[in-house]
């Protein structure tokens, strides 16, 4: 078995190859070797459910009903959200929705207007 690099995130030695990516089974981090991969990781690209690139300040539409955690409120399908802010967390979009307030959404549940 060839020498595989340790995970750059958690330094685990149990990495494996999956196609042209390296995968860490401990923290689920995926990466590839090369200068292009390092540059692309620095600037994460956020895409909506249709594959369109999202930017800060874009307007999006919710594509399915979403329950608001800790509340009986629901964000209805078709709700328009203006002026999104992209963040590097589990939920990629930080926004304010009229009638509900501040929320975080995942990019997979929105489409760009």
TrEMBL record:
<dbReference type="Pfam" id="PF03831">
    <property type="entry name" value="YjdM"/>
</dbReference>
<feature type="domain" description="Protein YjdM N-terminal">
    <location>
        <begin position="4"/>
        <end position="32"/>
    </location>
</feature>
<dbReference type="InterPro" id="IPR013988">
    <property type="entry name" value="YjdM_C"/>
</dbReference>
<feature type="domain" description="Protein YjdM C-terminal">
    <location>
        <begin position="47"/>
        <end position="112"/>
    </location>
</feature>
<comment type="similarity">
    <text>Belongs to the YjdM family.</text>
</comment>
<dbReference type="Pfam" id="PF08274">
    <property type="entry name" value="Zn_Ribbon_YjdM"/>
</dbReference>
<dbReference type="InterPro" id="IPR004624">
    <property type="entry name" value="YjdM"/>
</dbReference>
<protein>
    <submittedName>
        <fullName>Protein PhnA</fullName>
    </submittedName>
</protein>
<dbReference type="InterPro" id="IPR013987">
    <property type="entry name" value="YjdM_N"/>
</dbReference>
């Amino acid at each position: 078995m060839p020498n595989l690099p340790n995970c750059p995130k958690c330094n685990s030695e149990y990495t494996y190859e999956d196609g042209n990516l390296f995968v860490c089974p401990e923290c689920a981090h995926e990466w590839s070797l090369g200068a292009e991969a390092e540059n692309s990781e620095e600037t994460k690209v956020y895409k909506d459910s249709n594959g369109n690139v999202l930017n800060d300040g874009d307007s999006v539409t919710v594509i399915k009903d979403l329950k608001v955690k800790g509340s009986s409120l629901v964000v209805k399908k078709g709700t328009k959200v203006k002026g999104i802010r992209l963040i590097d967390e589990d939920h990629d979009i930080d926004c304010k929705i009229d009638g509900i307030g501040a929320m975080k959404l995942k990019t997979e549940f929105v489409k760009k207007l």
